[in-house]
Amino acid sequence: MAAHLHGPSGSWECPVWFTVAVVFAGLGYVRGWLQLRSTSPGLVPAWRAVSFFAGLGSIWVAVASPFALCDDQRLLTGHMVQHLLLLSLAPPLVLLGSALLALSYGLPPEIAQAVGAAARWPRVRRIGEVLGQPALGWLAATVILVVWHVPAALTLGLQSETWHAVEHASFLATGLLFWWPVIQPWPSTPTGPQWWMVVYLFLAMLPCDIMAGFLVFSERVLYPVYLSTPGQPALSPLDDQQLAGALMWTGVTIIYLVAGTIISARLLSAPSAAEDRLAVAEPA
């Protein structure tokens, strides 16, 4: 997603094109959000805009900020923070910001009309319905998580800027795919009982917990690339690996538990259909 994060001396250099793309996305969102506020003030409240920019900022921090130099310093902990930001934190924040709705209003009218017309095509809608299936989101996120933590794949991503960009893009794309049925932003519409989303989040924690436990309790370094770290790292390779595993364990657990708690609270506070019918049937 971004290239040339460091100069000849190892110092950070801002990836211009990626940063420009992030800025344009932010400006497009602001333009669309202001238009929506003028016509439908309650449609996208201010907290959703804050959520979107928090997600957009998380993406930039993971990919293009000085923090991304952790990869060049060969710290698995820094690499794990990037994965958590791109897969588990930035996607729900972006989707909670009603990104597609605001950005569609931020586009020039001609482009917005063309995008709207394309979105109404039956084939496009069918593709959208398939991509919004929870089973696909869970499977994609799990496969990407496991594949990129295979030692050979992780080493390839560290040694090749192209594959590193592919790695980051795959985490972000599958993160959006995974969180879509949880958030159900525009233009999707909630269907079926919502309690199964709590189960969905619980099942998503299991692969992360298994992998994190493997990293934490392993007594040997699983990624040989970290044994050849130049200079004197702040942590030993084994300590770094255990800290990265602990970070995955706690980070994913907290994020998914917060999401599950919010969904459960909404379900418990919403009146049931039976109660509604009973209230209507009661005499005045």
Pick out its properties.
284 residues; mainly alpha; disordered C terminus
- Overall pLDDT metric: 85
**Overall geometry:** globular
Number of helices: 12
Whole-number total of structural domains: 1
Q: Could you tell me how far the N terminus lies from the C terminus, measured between alpha carbons in angstroms?
A: 63 Å
Radius of gyration: 21 Å
Query: What is the helix/strand order?
Result: HHHHHHHHHHHH
The class by helix and strand makeup works out as: mainly alpha
* Weakly predicted, low-confidence segments: 273-284
Helix fraction by DSSP (H/I, runs of at least 4) = over 70%
Major β-sheet profile: none
**Beta strand count:** 0
Q: Tell me what portion of residues adopts beta-strand conformation.
A: under 5%
Describe the structure.
The protein is mostly helical and 284 residues long. It has one domain (16-281). It has helices at residues 16-39, 46-63, 76-96, 99-106, 109-119, 122-131, 134-147, 151-159, 161-183, 196-217, 237-269, 273-281. The protein is globular. The termini are far apart. The model is unreliable at 273-284 (pLDDT under 50).
Topology:
Elements: H1 16-39, H2 46-63, H3 76-96, H4 99-106, H5 109-119, H6 122-131, H7 134-147, H8 151-159, H9 161-183, H10 196-217, H11 237-269, H12 273-281
Helix pairs in contact: 1-2, 1-4, 2-3, 3-9, 3-11, 7-9, 7-10, 8-9, 10-11
